Amino acid sequence: NILMLQADIAAAQQQYEAARTVYLKAIAQDPQFRLAWVKLYQLAKSGYGTRAFADAAQQALNTSNDASWLRRLLAEHYVNQRQTTEAIAMYETLLANGDFTEDALLHNNLANLYLASDAEKALQHAEKALALAPKQAFSLDTYGWVLAKSGQYQQAVAVLRQANALNATDPAIR
């Protein structure tokens, strides 16, 4: 796709606004062009066109019946932008549609998102993430923090130590 190449060249030259515009044109020509969506997402993650990405993705979701991959990408974008309510809505829609139901990272993200507002849902998703990825530091870490939030401090410390032992170099594992 020539538009994709033009956008890639603009991005390589650090002309991020121009790249964003051309990626959007490529997507307008083919709304299912996943690589263009991913590149647009990466620009938004870097701080270029965050609103444009969300608006374009939401518009595409409004007109497509089969875009769970795009809904997931938009959910991740909302997580990056700290838009908790919007991220939860996207993830919950995915689960309600039967998409990504066995994805540990999705459940882990939901547990983290619910941690401040709904301890029961946070625990539910943390337990699901842990069941799907029992030996992964990310799932243990989140489960540990959910336990701590619910006042189960001794169990939380043990789980958090286990997470840290698995991946002590990751600053997200605290």
Alpha carbon gyration radius: 18 Å
Percentage of residues in strands = under 5%
End-to-end distance, in Å?
Answer: 43 Å
Estimated helix fraction: over 70%
Could you give the count of β-strands? 0
Structural class: mainly alpha
Q: What is the typical, i.e. mean, pLDDT?
A: 94
Write down the overall geometry: elongated
What is the makeup of the main sheet? none
**What is the subunit organization of this protein?**
single chain
**What sequence of helices (H) and strands (E) makes up the elements?**
HHHHHHHHHH
Runs in which pLDDT lies below 50 for 5 or more consecutive residues are none
**What's the number of helices?**
10
Compact overview of the structure:
The protein has 174 residues and is an all-alpha fold. The protein has helices spanning 2-12, 16-29, 34-45, 50-63, 68-80, 84-96, 104-114, 119-132, 137-149, 153-166. Helix 5 (68-80) packs antiparallel against helix 6.
Q: Would you give an account of this structure?
A:
The chain is mainly α and 174 residues long. The chain is 74% helix and 0% strand. α6 crosses α7.
Descriptive tags:
174 residues, mainly alpha
Summarize the topology.
Blueprint: H1 2-12, H2 16-29, H3 34-45, H4 50-63, H5 68-80, H6 84-96, H7 104-114, H8 119-132, H9 137-149, H10 153-166
Helix pairs in contact: 1-2, 2-3, 3-4, 3-5, 4-5, 5-6, 6-7, 7-8, 7-9, 8-9, 9-10
